[in-house]
Amino acid sequence: MLQQDNSEREVMLNVEHLNMHFTTKKRGRVNTVKAVDDVNFQVYKGETFGLVGESGCGKTTTGRCLIRLYNPTSGKIELEGVDIMGKMTSEKRKYITDRAAMIFQDPIDSLNPRMTVAEIIGEGLKVRGIKDQKVVDEKIYDILDKVGLTKEHATRYPHEFSGGQRQRIGIARALVINPKLVIADEPVSALDVSVQAQVINLLNDLKDEMGLTILFIAHNLSVVKYFSDRLGVMYKGKLVEVSYASDIYERPIHPYTKSLLSAIPEPNPLKEKRRVRHAYDPTMHDYTKEQPSMVEIYPGHFVYASPSEIDRVLNGGEI
Amino acid sequence: MDNNDLVLKAENLRVSFRTLTGKVQAVRGVSLELHKGETIAIVGESGSGKSVTVKTIMGILTKNAIIEEGSIMYEGQDLTKMDEANFHEIRGKKIGLIFQDPLSSLNPLMTIGRQISEVLTIGKGMDKESAKARALELMGQVGIPDPEVRYNQYPFQFSGGMRQRIVIAIALANDPDVLICDEPTTALDVTVQAMILELINKIKAERNISVIFITHDLGVVANMADRVYVMYAGKIVEYGTTNDIFFDPRHPYTWALLGSMPDMETEGRLAAIPGTPPNMLTPPVGDAFAARNEYALAIDLKYQPPFFKVSDTHYAATWLLHPLAPKVPVPEGLQKRIERMLREEAEYNASAGQ
Q1: Residues A149-160 pLDDT 10s
Q2: Which of B192, B216, B267 sits opposite A193 (nearest CB)?
Q3: What is the pTM assigned to this prediction?
């Protein structure tokens, strides 16, 4: 993808200083986990933004905060220019759910086994007050066709489908309300390799057809790189690097990104035989004197680092 | 490769499962060879029979399984005909096994130390003191920091990667000749996966053991394997050295598998495989992949293809290799990737030579 000037693009989602802290009390001792810690990024209209990181890094929590499935501790989230933080009112909920939908990882757990496919997909329409069964049915058949299923599938139950087909049902459910933003949380990682490609192609087609903006959360970097225009790398609740997908791959700056890139096995035996893995040691940063922050080091390329680290990179060195 | 260093040889193995709805033919005539000090990878999607194949080798099939035909020769004995008492001398001692999920293969109520030393006291008849010393040594070898402290901890106190290291230590306690790894890194993060793969490679080199590695991740295959067996619907469809499979694939399923996985350079549409694998209750009469194969010939629907020889190390079961079959080139996207890989290699060699 061409690297365009971001300042002129329309922002779909604006996230500033997002914090999601979970507090547990054990024998009177309060323990706080900073699952999402001061995360800033923007998702532009019509793009696919990938969020990668290891399990437990907070990528799923971030995704869920964005459509208020969790109540973020602090920060600012703007969906199409409207602040969606604060007390959840019914107007606000309607505003969010009209615009954003979610696709989940596990196609078995995320579908109610006692509902037929038509009921699962139609629920979102019913909630929106569409009472005319004819209109509902038409929309259901239309979306089933779009995701590569048929009318006949509508009366069946989830257990009658294979994993890939179930994920198609999950996609249909998310898209039937015509959302603008889709948050896809590991939509292919539970699927077989041969089926993964089908679902990725389907998401790509639907994105073009319906003009979707997608936030794609995954741990498989080669899939994310293939699917996303821009991507963000998360490590322990912090977003450490954001840039164009190809840029991150060709010019990683943060040592964690380098470590992640060096760990991905590629289907190339000759390259694999001489793979050198870089380990990431978070204690290498000296943040006692100066605080790190998200800095735009090159146009569109953000990295979480301290001023002296930035200086070093700009002078041809490393963090 | 001569036959003197042959460690394990499975021939025409057929395994079925009795179920309420009928007989599921999980493995349909699998033959494979494992030589001393080599790593073979078995790749395929879920349901292709790769796990059942190694479970048969380990003799840990469920009760409703029937070994219908075939043999697994190991040290002059046929493992498929061995009784349970004799199998004890092989399972875990000569052939070690690492499962996918390290949490469910460890006992949550037992300390890590006891789980490792138990193998030594029961299996090797060591006394408690020397078993503990050896267990600590093993923990060090698999990269557990502070083994003395960790020895008395429980599985829940370990991270996923550390648990998998413990499972590897247990598998190594009896000095096996063969290590079977059934998707050992699928549940782990990429950075942890890289470390575990390095560990398995290091152990393999140090001890000169043979490894059977099961995975569906072709990146992992490229990293680990010397030779590759590609499985589909209970059959091996292609096998050869890792370079044979990645640079000169011949079976349409191998093409599809390689083409459907994006690598870091992939652009344009992914070559998805249409449809889903066949139901193994009633496997197709002809080539099982024919229904999903855009290059399928009429004969594919009627007769199962035999293995055609590509080279001394490389065989593929597809009618496309028959002398009378139309010549079908490797799909364009895959061909480009192969050319790119070769170009990169040439560039690397040129720069390394300077």
Answers
A1: 999 999 999 998
A2: B216
A3: 0.88
